[in-house]
Write a structure and sequence with these properties.
By secondary structure, this protein is an alpha/beta fold. It has a single domain, classed as Aldolase class I (TIM Barrel), CATH 3.20.20. About 40% of the residues lie in helices and about 15% in strands. It is built from 9 helices and 8 strands. The chain has an 8-stranded parallel beta barrel with strand order 1-2-3-4-5-6-7-8, surrounded by 6 helices. α4 links the parallel β4 and β5. α1 packs parallel to α2.
Length: about 210
């Protein structure tokens, strides 16, 4: 992952699929489908259509939490929370052709997932966000800088995704810490023109890529 990751969710204005299409129209090439309270049947139903949309726009689709759904849909990969299936177990299920990522909040979390062979980590939250329940302690720019410094010292070179209430104004400082990807949801979906907002965010993130 390298750039913008759109975390799809449902709002009063947009359905999951509508939100995904808006981000794709704006040029986003990485989408995570996150349906925390949905049944497996609902996730499969929406996920199948999300996969078709992503294929149309030549984008990658990641499924949140459910490795078995990822496999059924032939999605790009799965993102696992701290209380989900262990990455090592997901790897047994999926094999080597799928990307597996996990949620982290500390350097110790990253070490734990690194040893289990994840392909990337989502590190956060940057700040408080209403899109996630049971939030871990917020990190801020200083938290990212400290953890990424520790990773480099330990020789851990996993791609790190910054996530959690991130806005356009936050992006320069966060990217300077060495993260590879910025995950955004609300900033896009609350914009007057989500497609234009997506384009603007991608251009800004690209400016700071290393």
């Amino acid at each position: 992952m390298n750039g913008l990751l759109f975390i799809a969710h449902q709002t009063e204005r947009y359905s999951y699929l509508q939100s995904i299409e808006l981000a794709l129209k704006g040029g986003c090439k990485e989408v995570q489908l996150r349906m925390k309270d949905a049944s497996i049947e609902e996730l499969l139903f929406v996920g199948k259509q999300a996969k078709q949309l992503c294929d149309t726009y030549n984008a990658k689709l990641y499924i949140d939490d459910h490795a078995e759904v990822c496999k059924k849909l032939n999605a790009t990969g799965v993102h696992l929370g701290k209380n989900d299936m262990p990455p090592s177990q997901a790897r047994e299920l999926l094999g080597d052709n799928y990307i597996i990522g996990g949620t982290t909040n500390t350097f110790e979390d990253i070490i734990h997932l690194y040893k289990q062979g994840v392909n990337y980590v989502g590190l956060g939250p940057f700040r408080f966000t209403t899109t996630k329940k049971n939030l871990s302690p917020v990190l801020g720019v200083a938290g990212y800088a400290s953890i990424i410094h520790s990773c480099r010292e330990a020789g851990i070179n996993l791609p790190i995704i910054a996530i959690g209430g991130i806005t356009e104004a936050d992006i320069p400082a966060i990217m300077e810490t060495g993260v590879s990807t910025i995950a955004i949801s609300s900033s896009i979906l609350t914009a007057t023109d989500p497609v234009s907002e997506t384009k603007k965010l991608i251009k800004l993130i690209d400016t700071y890529k290393r």
